[in-house]
Amino acid sequence: MDDVIAAIATAPGEGGIGIVRVSGKVSVDVVEKIFHSPSGKSLKDLGTYRMAYGYIMDNQSGNRLDEVIVSIMLGPRSFTGEDVVEINCHGGIVPLRKVLEQVLRTGARLADPGEFSKRAFLNGRIDLAQAESIIDVIRSQTDMGLKVALKQLEGGLSGELVEIRRVLLEVLAFIEAGIDFPEDDIEELSRDQIRERTKEVAQRLKHLVESAETGRIYRDGLSTVIVGKPNVGKSSLLNALLREKRAIVTDIPGTTRDVIEEVLNLQGIPVRLVDTAGIRETEDVVEKLGVERSKEWFGLADLVLLVLDAGTGIEAEDLEIARLVQGQRCLVVINKIDVGDKLDKDDLPPAFRQFSSVEVSVKEKVGIQLLEEKIAAMVLEGKVSPGDRVVVSNLRHKQALEKAAGQLAGVLQSLEMGMPTDCMAIDLKGALESLGEITGESIGEDIINEIFAQFCLGK
Question: Residue 248 has what pLDDT?
Answer without folding.
Answer: 43
